[in-house]
């Protein structure tokens, strides 16, 4: 997978910090994290709760801005972009999978998958959404609402939504955290096959060593700092 | 996303929470309907009173005793009336004494306006009979106990308006014979033109409405020879009366009003009335507006998570704001239209109720009140749909997603 001697990294972060103001106290969630992720890699980010792994994920996924530091995503310096430019990056370059799925509760699976395409102004949305749902094994659940789907099915909808604009990276924040072990395994194997077959870069935040073990590389965080990079 | 899609999506999103949407719409509906209906009723009352004043007669002047800042005004007299009749611009002079009294027929009784008149009263007031005849000169000289009744009186006493000539009724205890029934003027609520009984002036003076002197009258109605000589008639009448009352050079101890002046003073009273209704309506609009504010504000706050999610998958600030703007516009538009329809319905119902009570008020919906109410409630809806949405759209997606 990494035979090429010098491919440009899809993620290049240098000295990322994030501080929050909680009342009078300033809390540092990240204290200078630098990392590189190559295209097609499958990486997990691990750490105990409070270690800053979700904060890191949110910054890498452009859901949040770093307080300081440089972040280059797919060759583009994103730490200085405007809100609308970041929205376009989230729309086209990043697919996000959340622990709590974050689907529109009152919309069908199809409409949920179509959502990123709407903001991208894409054509053939319905057909592409159908295709995406078929590829995650939900051909018979397209018109169901999230409340009519199991947790595993909801997460598949979320994955179909994350992939619909062919992003450079797929970010998953505890994707199996709200699922039973069987659904969790299915979701993991789906992510693995996406990585292997479509060469999608996948970053998974988890505290489950079993899941981390399935990835090629584990990045460990402790107290806002990188512990080791294998 | 193009515009039609935006609207479709807004409709979808509204349809997905019907209760919330209909509560919002309800606020707008109430506000809009209240204002339009109230102003329509006010305008209807104004129209009805104006037209009933106009039906009193044409080219008419009224002379009353008394004036501004005059103490002990001399009363108007029959001699004044005779003197006025000599003026060149005056066609008819109708001295009148007037009071209220009870009219009785075999157990049925009604209160009516009793008017002592001369034969000139009919042309001045534009009166005609549907049966029988009007007060004649002979009735006047003979102090005849005869009466011409209006249709309201006829209906109250007899339950009909026909075949009444020759019937005996009692007016303030005195027996009178009906000699005619007046043609209906299409009464309005305030001082209906059909609720009156005309008796000879002389009879009224001696038997019904005693005045300090037999010569004294309450007021004198004048009819100018044509519409263009009303002003001239007014001037001549003023000169004649000033000379007779020896007030030349000083303040007149009488007042001459023409129909236009009466109309305009009535209209200014009604303007206040309409303003009052409008004030009440504005309060309803304000309350409705606050309702819209609340529900819009709560709705958007509730949907912060949805906004975060939309931003996470690539919605720009503009996309979010357009979505909420379209949603609130659709709500405001529906609310406005339903409100206008409801106002129309209320107006029709009020009109029916008024008609059933013999009050001829036809509520008239006016374009300006429709615009005012609709624009106001739409503006409130838009602003309070838009403002919190903008705030939420400015959050980083992760912050918006964190909200629960």
Structure description:
The complex is a heterodimer of chains A (230) and B (404). Chain A has 230 residues and is of the alpha/beta class. Chain A is 33% helix and 27% strand. Chain A has a domain at 106-161. Chain A has a 6-stranded mixed β-sheet with strand order 6-7-8-3-9-10, with helices on both faces. A 4-stranded antiparallel β-sheet of chain A has the order 2-1-4-5, covered by helices on one side. In chain A, a hairpin with a 2-residue loop joins strand 1 and strand 2. The mean pLDDT of chain A is 88. With 404 residues, chain B is α+β, with helices and mostly antiparallel strands. Chain B has 2 domains: 3-53 and 265-402, no CATH class; 75-244, no CATH class. Chain B has helices at residues 3-15, 18-54, 78-85, 121-125, 137-142, 151-158, 201-208, 230-244, 259-302, 304-312, 317-356, 367-393, 397-402, and strands at residues 60-65, 76-77, 90-105, 108-117, 129-132, 146-149, 168-171, 174-182, 196-200, 216-217, 219-224, 254-258. In chain B, strands 3-4-9-6-8-7 form a 6-stranded mixed beta barrel, surrounded by 4 helices. In chain B, a hairpin with a 2-residue loop joins strand 3 (90-105) and strand 4 (108-117). In chain B, helix 2 packs antiparallel against helix 9. The two termini of chain B are 28 Å apart. Classes of the chains: A alpha/beta (230), B alpha+beta (404). At the A-B interface, helix 2 and helix 3 of A face helix 1, helix 10, helix 11 and helix 13 of B.
């Amino acid at each position: 997978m990494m035979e090429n001697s010098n491919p440009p990294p899809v993620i290049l972060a240098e000295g990322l910090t994030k501080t929050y103001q909680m009342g009078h106290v300033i809390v540092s969630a990240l204290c200078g994290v630098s990392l590189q992720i190559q295209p097609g890699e499958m990486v997990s980010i691990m750490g105990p709760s409070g270690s800053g792994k979700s904060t890191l994920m949110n910054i890498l996924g452009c859901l949040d801005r770093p307080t300081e530091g440089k972040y280059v995503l797919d060759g583009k310096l994103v730490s200085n972009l405007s809100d609308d430019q970041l929205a376009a990056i989230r729309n086209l370059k990043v697919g996000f999978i959340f622990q709590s799925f974050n689907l529109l509760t009152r919309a069908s699976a199809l409409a949920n998958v179509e959502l990123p395409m709407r903001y991208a102004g894409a054509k053939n949305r319905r057909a592409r959404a159908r295709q995406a749902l078929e590829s995650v094994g939900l051909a018979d659940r397209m018109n169901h609402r999230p409340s009519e789907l199991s947790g595993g099915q909801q997460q598949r909808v979320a994955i179909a939504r994350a992939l619909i604009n062919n992003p450079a990276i797929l970010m998953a924040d505890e994707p199996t955290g709200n699922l039973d072990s069987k659904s969790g395994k299915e979701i993991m194997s789906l992510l693995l096959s996406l990585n292997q077959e479509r060469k999608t870069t996948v970053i998974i935040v988890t505290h489950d060593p079993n899941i981390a073990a399935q990835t090629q590389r584990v990045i460990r965080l402790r107290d806002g700092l990188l512990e080791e990079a294998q | 996303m193009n515009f039609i899609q935006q609207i479709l999506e807004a409709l979808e999103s509204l349809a997905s929470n019907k209760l919330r949407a209909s509560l919002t719409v309800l606020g707008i509906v109430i506000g809009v309907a209240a204002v339009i209906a109230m102003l329509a009723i006010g305008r209807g009352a104004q129209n009805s009173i104006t037209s009933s004043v106009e039906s009193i007669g044409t080219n008419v002047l009224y002379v009353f005793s008394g004036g501004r800042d005059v103490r002990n005004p001399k009363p108007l007299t029959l001699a004044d009336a005779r003197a006025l009749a000599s003026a060149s611009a005056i066609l008819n002079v109708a001295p009148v004494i007037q009071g209220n009294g009870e009219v009785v027929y075999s157990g049925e009784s009604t209160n009516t306006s009793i008017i002592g008149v001369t034969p000139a009263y009919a042309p001045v007031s534009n009166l005609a009979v549907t049966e029988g005849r009007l007060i004649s000169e002979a009735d006047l000289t003979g102090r005849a106990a005869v009466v011409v009744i209006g249709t309201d009186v006829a209906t109250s006493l007899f339950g009909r308006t026909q075949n009444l000539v020759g019937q005996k009724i009692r007016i303030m205890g005195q027996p009178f014979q009906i000699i005619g029934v007046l043609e209906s003027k299409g009464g309005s609520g305030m001082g209906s033109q059909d609720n009156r009984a005309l008796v000879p002036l002389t009879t009224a003076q001696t038997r019904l409405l005693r005045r300090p002197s037999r010569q004294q009258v309450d007021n004198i109605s004048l009819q100018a020879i044509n519409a263009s000589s009303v002003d001239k008639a007014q001037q001549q009448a003023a000169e004649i009366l000033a000379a007779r009352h020896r007030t030349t050079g000083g303040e007149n101890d009488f007042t001459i009003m023409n129909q236009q002046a009466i109309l305009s003073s009535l209209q200014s009273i009604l303007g206040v009335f309409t303003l009052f209704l409008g004030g009440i309506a504005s309060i309803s609009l304000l309350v409705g507006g606050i309702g819209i504010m609340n529900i819009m504000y709560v709705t958007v706050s509730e949907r912060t998570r949805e906004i975060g999610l939309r931003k996470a998958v690539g919605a720009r600030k503009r996309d979010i704001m357009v979505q909420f703007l379209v949603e609130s516009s659709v709500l405001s538009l529906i609310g406005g239209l339903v409100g206008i329809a409801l106002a129309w319905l209320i107006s029709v119902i009020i009109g029916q109720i008024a008609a059933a009570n013999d009050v001829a008020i036809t509520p008239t919906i006016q374009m300006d009140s429709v615009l005012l109410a609709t624009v106001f409630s739409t503006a409130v809806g838009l602003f309070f749909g838009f403002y919190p949405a903008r705030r939420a759209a400015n959050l980083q997606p992760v912050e918006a997603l964190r909200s629960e």
